[in-house]
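User: Please fill in residues for this 199-position structure.
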């Protein structure tokens, strides 16, 4: 495919590469020096990877559900789902983990699909609160369970490598829907489970 043919969202690959060259120049370097010649191409390729989530409809991952397995109707939790995202304010990396739980009502989903939903939302420009709510709402929409719980931990590089320069700070956000919001025992059981076995 030629550069001209590769148009996404009304922007050609050549235009995207030119924007990277502009930033390199603005930063004080020479985009024409040997070491930087292929950098715009690499950066655009990296962007296609980091922001691949826009081309994905996360709801589709959850469209294939199973009837409750052997009548299992207790809490299902997938914890420590790693993600890489970028903050929409600075386009700086956010790196962390997501813990997802739900209490099924008749339908369950393949667990890898929950991790795919996380990735689909993470690979966009994000605000952590928004990503947290998007993941919870997506599961709620698709499975109509008794409740959904999502906890997100994130280290924001816009706070560590620039600006206020605070290392080791974690942002914690949660979205509790249905029984997880209404019933403290259910919520506490989830929170206890995601801590089980940790030092
Ligand atoms: N609530 C929330 N804030 C975020 C997130 N990611 C980045 N931020 C914050 O967004 C804010 C943007 O503030 P501004 O004052 O417009 O930007 P800034 O001048 O670069 O601010 P500093 O980071 O304080 O230097 C900063 O406080 C960031 O820490 C996020 O996911 N959620
Ligand atoms: Zn930021």
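Assistant: Residues filled in for all 199 positions:
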């Amino acid at each position: 495919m030629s550069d001209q043919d590769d148009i996404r969202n009304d922007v050609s690959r050549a235009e995207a590469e030119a924007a990277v060259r502009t930033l390199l120049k603005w930063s004080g370097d020479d985009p024409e020096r040997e070491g930087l010649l292929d950098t715009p191409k690499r950066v655009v390729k990296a962007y296609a990877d980091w922001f691949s989530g826009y081309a994905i409809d996360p709801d589709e991952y959850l469209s294939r559900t199973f009837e409750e397995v052997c009548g299992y109707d207790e809490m299902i939790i997938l914890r420590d789902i790693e993600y890489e995202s970028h903050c929409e304010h600075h386009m700086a990396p956010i790196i962390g983990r997501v813990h997802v739980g739900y209490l099924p009502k008749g339908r369950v989903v393949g667990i890898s699909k929950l991790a795919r939903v996380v990735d689909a939302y993470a690979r966009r420009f994000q605000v952590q609160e928004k990503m947290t709510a998007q993941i919870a709402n997506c599961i709620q929409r698709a499975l109509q369970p008794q409740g959904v719980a999502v906890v997100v931990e994130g280290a924001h590089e816009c706070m560590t490598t620039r600006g206020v320069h605070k290392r080791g700070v974690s942002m914690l956000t949660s979205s509790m829907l249905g029984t997880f919001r209404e019933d403290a025992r259910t919520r506490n059981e989830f929170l206890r489970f995601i801590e089980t076995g940790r030092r």
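For context: The beta strands are 7-8, 11-12, 65-67, 76-87, 93-103, 107-109, 125-126, 147-156, 171-178.
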